[in-house]
Design goal:
Blueprint (H helix, E strand, L loop, with lengths): L1 H23 L5 H19 L13 H18 L4 H22 L6 H18 L8 H21 L5 H22 L8 H25 L5 H7 L2 H13 L6 H23 L1
Helix pairs in contact: 1-8, 1-10, 2-3, 2-7, 2-8, 3-6, 3-7, 4-5, 4-6, 4-9, 5-11, 7-8, 10-11
Keywords: Cell membrane, Membrane, Transmembrane, Transmembrane helix
Pfam family, one: EamA
Subcellular location: Cell membrane
């Protein structure tokens, strides 16, 4: 289970890097990137369900598909005007508040160890991202918070899913016509080069379709507070990815923040195992 969690978080972080590369490098516009991302995920998951041993009836859920589409489009559109740090803070801060609030409202109890772990993880994330967050625009900030809320609810509803592959495939397939509506409203214009298309396809087919399927299979086994806290590792992994793949600097403050965040997440996992 721990290996699956690590793989899912690494894929989430890779999505952030791919989106940054495509949008900041002007290889693709945000709407086209989001549309290709959803279409690629839908195609990949459909093909997966055709494999021997994987054949099953696709499960369609309009609400979950809409939440997925809102998350993807709001995420990309917000990042056009936000720094990576500001976007990550707003996104994962919203996810943490919504999912933890839902868990506590449903009667989830926090032990002392889990509370310390959550506070450490959030403190480490703030230390990592606040110095570079700057002063984001109100419109872009609201878009990223909408994206975070949509993703949080998508994760909450995912706890009830029985067949992760069938449900995730159905969500992506239903999200495609929704993406076409957004694309039509945008004027049917595409600004992309081949590099941008490749980034969007990789993000959709592997880092979204495959990773969300994996994440959906894990959610029934995780409490809302644990699931939200685990995702605080994504900005840390993205920072490390930026160091490796984009030659970004890693100073002492960032390294300390990453250690604190991941240590806090470790305490949350340890608390769950005790319970």
């Amino acid at each position: 289970m721990l290996l699956k969690i690590v793989l899912a978080m690494v894929a989430f972080a890779a999505n952030s890097l791919l989106c940054r590369l495509a949008l900041k490098g002007l290889h693709m516009d945000a709407v086209s990137f989001s549309g290709v991302r959803l279409l690629s995920g839908a195609v990949a998951l459909y093909l997966l369900l055709q494999l021997p041993g994987m054949r099953r009836k696709t499960e369609f859920n309009v609400l979950n598909a809409a939440l997925l589409a809102v998350y993807v489009f709001a995420f990309s559109l917000a990042y056009v005007s936000l720094t990576t740090a500001a976007g990550a803070l707003l996104l994962f801060g919203t996810v943490q508040i919504v999912m933890s609030g839902w868990g506590l409202a449903r009667g989830e109890r926090l032990t002392g160890l889990k509370s310390v772990g959550m506070l450490a993880a959030m403190g480490g994330l703030a230390l990592l991202l606040l110095p570079g967050a700057g002063h984001p625009s109100i419109g872009a900030s609201l878009l990223m918070m909408v994206s975070g809320a949509a993703w949080a609810v998508y994760c909450i509803t995912g706890k009830k899913v029985r067949d992760a592959a069938a449900a995730t495939a159905g969500n992506f397939m239903l999200a495609v016509p929704m993406a076409l509506l957004v694309f039509a409203f945008h004027g049917m214009s595409i600004e992309a080069d081949i590099y941008g298309v490749l980034l969007a396809v990789t993000s959709g087919a592997l880092m979204s379709g495959g990773a969300y399927l994996l994440w959906y299979s894990l959610l029934p086994k995780l409490s809302p507070t644990t699931a939200s806290t685990l995702q605080l590792s994504v900005p840390c992994l993205a920072a490390l990815g930026g160091l490796v793949f984009m030659s970004e600097a890693l100073d002492g403050r960032m390294l300390l923040a990453i250690v604190i965040t991941l240590s806090g997440i470790g305490l949350v996992i340890a608390a769950d195992r005790r319970q």
